[in-house]
Specification:
The protein is mostly helical. The protein has one domain. It is built from eleven helices and four strands; from the N terminus they run H-E-H-H-H-E-E-H-H-H-H-H-H-H-E. The protein has a two-stranded antiparallel ribbon with strand order 1-4. Helix 7 runs antiparallel to helix 10 and helix 8 packs antiparallel against helix 10. Keywords: Signal. This is DUF4439 domain-containing protein.
Length: 314
C-alpha cells in the first residue's frame, strides 16, 4: 500500500487503490454474516484540533478524521468557485457525484471502522451558491443529499442550460485554482510527511505484526493472504451484497479488520508519533507558518464562500 508522493497537490493515501489491489491467490469469502445491531450513523463534528499539525500531519487513525474533513473542504472550495463562475456565465456545470470522506487506510481509524464498517462514513453537507437575490448579492445555502445522492437544494445556473465546453473548462479551471491556492498553505509539508512514513512499512516490527493478520482474519472466516487481499475481498463483497445485507456485510468486515489490525497499529502508531516529533523538529519554520496561517485561511474561506469545515465522527 504505497503512499503517494505528490507534494504539490492534495496528498492522500489512495484508499481506492487498496480496494482494487489483488492478492496472490483468489481469496475465500467470509461466511454469511450474522445480523448485526444497527448503530446510529456516523455524525459530523466541527471541533478543530488543538494544533493544526494534527489535521495536516496525522499520526493516528483518529487524527485522520480531521484530515478527511480538510480534504473535503478544499474540494468544496473548488466546486463553489466553479459553480460561481458558471452562474456568472448564466449556465450550469455537468452534474458531479456528491463529495465523500475518504479513509486513510495506511493510518487506519480502527475504532471508526469497527463501528461503521469498511466504507460507511458521515454524509458530507454540500454548500452550494444560491442565485443572486433581489439586491444583487449572492447568497449561499447548504444542501443535503436525497436518497439517490442528488442535492435537494439547488440554486445554480439558469434552469439547467448546459454550458459550452469552453465555459465549462474555464470554470473548472477557476475551481481548481481556488482549491490550489487554499491547499498551498499546507500541501508541500503534508507531502513530505507522508513520504517520511514510507520506510515504516519495511520496519521489522511492523512486518512481523502484519504477518499475523491473515491467520487472525481466518479466525473470522476470511481467508486471504495479506491486507491487500482483504481489501480486494471487501470490495467484491460490497459490490455483490444485496442492499438489505450490505450493512451487515460491511460491519462484519470492519469488525474483523479492526480486530486483526490492532496489533499492527500497536506497533505503527507509536512509531508514527515518534517520526512526527522528529519531523516537527526538522521543519520548524514550516510548522510555525502552518500553525499561524492555516486555520485563519480556512475560516476566511468558510465565511466568504459559505463553506462548513466539518469532520466525520463515530
Amino acid at each position: 500500500m504505497p503512499l503517494p508522493c505528490r507534494a504539490a497537490a492534495r496528498v492522500t493515501l489512495v484508499a481506492a487503490a487498496l480496494f482494487t489491489a489483488a492478492c496472490s491467490a483468489d481469496p475465500a469469502p467470509p461466511s454469511d454474516p450474522s445480523p448485526v445491531t444497527r448503530v446510529p450513523p456516523a455524525r459530523l463534528s466541527s471541533a478543530l484540533p488543538d494544533d493544526p499539525v494534527r489535521m495536516v500531519l496525522p499520526a493516528t487513525g483518529a487524527e485522520t478524521r480531521w484530515t478527511q474533513g480538510l480534504d473535503v473542504f478544499v474540494r468544496q472550495r473548488a466546486r463553489t468557485a466553479a459553480t460561481s463562475c458558471a452562474r456568472d456565465h448564466g449556465t450550469t456545470l455537468p452534474t458531479q457525484a456528491p463529495l465523500a470522506f475518504i479513509r486513510y487506510y495506511e493510518i487506519p481509524d480502527l475504532d471508526f471502522v469497527a463501528r461503521h464498517g469498511t466504507s460507511e462514513s458521515a454524509t458530507v453537507p454540500a454548500s452550494v451558491p444560491a442565485p443572486a437575490t433581489a439586491s444583487g448579492l449572492a447568497t449561499t445555502r447548504t444542501a443535503t443529499h436525497g436518497g439517490d445522492g442528488s442535492p435537494r437544494a439547488s440554486g445554480t445556473g439558469d434552469g439547467g442550460r448546459s454550458g459550452s465546453p469552453a465555459v465549462v473548462r474555464r470554470c473548472l479551471a477557476e475551481g481548481k485554482a481556488a482549491a490550489t491556492a487554499l491547499r498551498g498553505t499546507y500541501a508541500a509539508l503534508q507531502g513530505q510527511w507522508f513520504q517520511s512514513l514510507v520506510p515504516l512499512g519495511h520496519d521489522p516490527a511492523v512486518v512481523k505484526a502484519l504477518r499475523t493478520v491473515p491467520n487472525c482474519l481466518a479466525g473470522h472466516g476470511i481467508r486471504v493472504h495479506d491486507e491487500n487481499g482483504f481489501f480486494a475481498l471487501a470490495d467484491s463483497q460490497q459490490q455483490t451484497a444485496a442492499p438489505d445485507r450490505l450493512p451487515a456485510v460491511e460491519r462484519a468486515l470492519g469488525s474483523a479488520y479492526a480486530d486483526c489490525m490492532r496489533p499492527v497499529e500497536a506497533v505503527r502508531e507509536p512509531a508514527r508519533l515518534r517520526l512526527r516529533a522528529r519531523f516537527l523538529t526538522d521543519h520548524v519554520d514550516e510548522i510555525r507558518t502552518l500553525r499561524t496561517t492555516l486555520v485563519p485561511a480556512l475560516h476566511r474561506a468558510a465565511e466568504e464562500h459559505g463553506l462548513r469545515l466539518v469532520f466525520p465522527a463515530p
